Amino acid sequence: MAHWTDGPEYAPTERPDVFVEPDAPQLGHADPEPDAAPRPPRAEVAPPPHGFSAPDAPPLDALVPASAPERDPHEAFDVAATPMTSWSPATLPPPEGDPAPLEPPRMGPDGFPALPAPTPSAWGHAHAPQGLGRPAPPAWAPDQPFPPGVAPAPSNVPGPPPAWPPPQVNPGGFPQAGPAPWEQPPPQRAFEPVTLGTMLRNTTPAVLICLGLGAIVFPFSMAMLVLASVLATRIRYRRRIVGRMFTGSILLSFLLGLAGMFDYQGALDPLGWYDASTGWAQLACLILFVAVPLVVGDAMRRGEEPEQFL
């Protein structure tokens, strides 16, 4: 049990009146452990030698093999003669004895000395010209009969290729191969004057009325824009471009209205979406009220043909 003398953390919280020794008996000392099995006696260590007698052997200096004499590094190397560097004296001693007799030249059939026949070799045998084969037959004309018992010698030389297609006796009137005849290009169309009334008339009054109402009356801007896109199919000039303008305006109005609604309210509200899109549709009606007649007028000024109704 811990005692207050073991440290301040074991001291009582309240100061005691007196200090009394505990009633527990005092612990005794532990008995010593009995010795284990008796250890064997240590062997006696031999005393260190006081001297050493070397065996009979030749000295180490005598075992070193004899080396070649060392070269002085300050001296140059001695160059030995090689086949590339060998030389012979300028004058050789005269030959001894009589010279070998020369073979007399061989005379050819024309009375002049002929060259000796070349010594045959493997390379010359491999590259020797081939035999000429059988001799050519005697001259023969088509009006002469074949000699009896003699067949004409086969010929491996191919004849001239046949003309293909065969020439026509009376060729037809097909065009001859060659460059096409030059034709004068058609004259370019000049720009035609277009009046404002013609532009508005070809844009159709129904489309202009719907776009004008959509640009003025705010609550009906989206409805007027959709109705004008339907009536724009009656326009006969650049109908595809005009249709893309209306489709892009409607989709852009819906997307911008949706983005503004989420930015302002933070949630999806159908009524709020329509109100936000109507504001952008009003701006689209105002822009198309000017852009569509200009597109139609440009097509008329360039002389484009009007398209047929659907």
Entry keywords:
32% helix; mainly alpha; 310 residues
Question: Secondary structure elements and their pairing?
Answer:
Blueprint: H1 60-63, H2 122-126, H3 196-203, H4 205-216, H5 221-231, H6 239-264, H7 270-301
Helix pairs in contact: 3-4, 3-7, 4-5, 4-7, 5-6, 5-7, 6-7
Explain this structure to me?
The protein is mainly alpha-helical. The two termini are 110 Å apart. Helix content is 32%, strand content 0%. The protein has seven helices and no strands. It has a domain at 196-301.
Percentage of residues in helical conformation: 25-40%
Number of helices: 7
Distance between the termini: 110 Å
Task: Tell me the strand percentage band.
Answer: under 5%
* Average pLDDT rating: 76
User: What structural category characterises the helix and strand content?
Assistant: mainly alpha
H-E order: HHHHHHH
Shape descriptor? flat
Main pleated-sheet profile = none
**What is Rg?**
64 Å
Total number of beta strands: 0
Short description:
This protein has 310 residues and is mainly alpha-helical. It has helices spanning 60-63, 122-126, 196-203, 205-216, 221-231, 239-264, 270-301. The longest helix is centred in the C-terminal third of the chain and has 32 residues, at 270-301.
